[in-house]
Amino acid sequence: MPETKKNNAVLDFKCLEENCKGVVKFNLNELDVEDCQVLCPECHRPYEFDAALTDKFRKLANLVAALRDAEPILGSANVAVTVPGGEVKVPYVLLLTRLNTMITLDFGEKKVDFHVLVEPSSPEVFR
Ligand SMILES: [Zn+2]
Question: What spacing in Å lies between the alpha carbon of 71 and ligand 1's midpoint?
């Protein structure tokens, strides 16, 4: 599969297996909706995502795609964050691309924190 720079959104989470330090990673855009399974790189425990979870991943992928599409306007939008001594402006696009976003989803009986890593489509976005 050729590597596409576009819409590269990687999710990772810590393996749920006790004593396993593996981090399971997968690309949101490479998820096959019909057969959604990833393996832990350490213990090879398979993780299957049910329809509800897969649906959330798909929504997340859509969100990432929408953000990607909106980059030209997001690049000039800022979020004002109040800090002691004033206010700083954080470019909106950084919120989802540069900072690690975390999403907590129900995975079977457990709540699992998924880290979302979104690569900027090009370095010029952050001039
Ligand atoms: Zn594992």
Answer: 36
- pTM of the entire predicted model: 0.66
| Contacts of the segment 12-16: beta carbons below 8 A, 24+ positions apart | 12/114, 12/115, 12/117, 13/107, 13/112, 13/113, 13/114, 13/115, 14/112, 14/113, 15/40, 15/42, 15/43, 15/45, 16/45, 16/47, 16/107, 16/110, 16/112
Distance CA 112, CA 16 (A): 9
> For residue 111, how far is its CA from the centre of ligand 1 (angstroms)?
17
Task: Cite the beta strand spans of 54-126 per DSSP E.
Answer: 78-83, 86-91, 101-107, 110-118
pLDDT band at 20 (very low <50, low <70, confident <90, very high): very high
Give the domain ranges of the chain.
Answer: 9-120
Ligand 1 geometric centre to CA of 42 (Å): 5
pLDDT of residue 3: 43
pLDDT band at 4 (very low <50, low <70, confident <90, very high): very low
